[in-house]
Amino acid sequence: MQPKPPHFIAIYPGSFDPITNGHLDLVERGSRMFDKLIVSVLRNDSKKPLFSVEERTEMLREVLHVYPNVEVSSFEGLLVDHATAYTATVLLRGIRAISDYEYELQMALMNRRLSPEIETVFMMAHETYSFISSRLVKEVFSLGGNITGLVPPSVELRLHARLAKTKTMKGQS
Ligand code: PNS
Questions:
Q1: Which atom of ligand 1 is nearest to the CA of 107?
Q2: Which residues sit opposite 71 in a β-bridge?
Q3: Is 12 helix (H, G, I), strand (E, B) or coil?
Q4: Which residues are tagged catalytic?
């Protein structure tokens, strides 16, 4: 019997509050590298996210449904346990600048200690997007700056809707 070809399932974890074009670029490239890519949102309210996990997974699905081998999921607890549940052997992370490296290295080494059979794979962010972060997008947007081209159009619409809702609520209080 012929040996089965390797089947690589990768998890791309993150907060995705919200997804940016930098994340999207990584998903697109990751989807070409792995047989299956699971984009997983961490459930962690202590980070005081702008969007709920449900909203974030919905936004991810809206944008990522065009990739047939990409799935959207969420998790709480240890990332390696989540990866094991999906029989994933790869954790995918993006690196934008040297400043990302220390944090990413710590996480990768901790995850390797917890689960040596799961490998972290880093991809360099595309230079067009290497300055984008969800945090900066939210800051610029909340201060009235233009974020077109930094996030997918559907996410920009969500941000406008969220801002309008916040203004209405403030007006009522
Ligand atoms: O987009 P982020 O906020 O940089 O993503 C961070 C994330 C979700 C990858 C990280 O916080 C995580 O994996 N949390 C799960 C908890 C865990 O497994 N901790 C131990 C290994 S570092």
A1: 22
A2: 38
A3: strand
A4: 23, 47, 96, 134
The predicted model scores a pTM of 0.94
CA-to-CA distance for 42 and 45, rounded, in angstroms? 9
- CA 14 to ligand 1 center in whole angstroms: 7
| Single-letter amino acid code for the residue at 66 | V
Phi and psi for 36 in degrees, rounded to 5? -140, 140
Q: Relative to the CA of 42, which ligand 1 atom is closest?
A: 8
pLDDT in tens, 26-65: 999 999 999 999 999 999 888 899 999 999 999 999 999 9
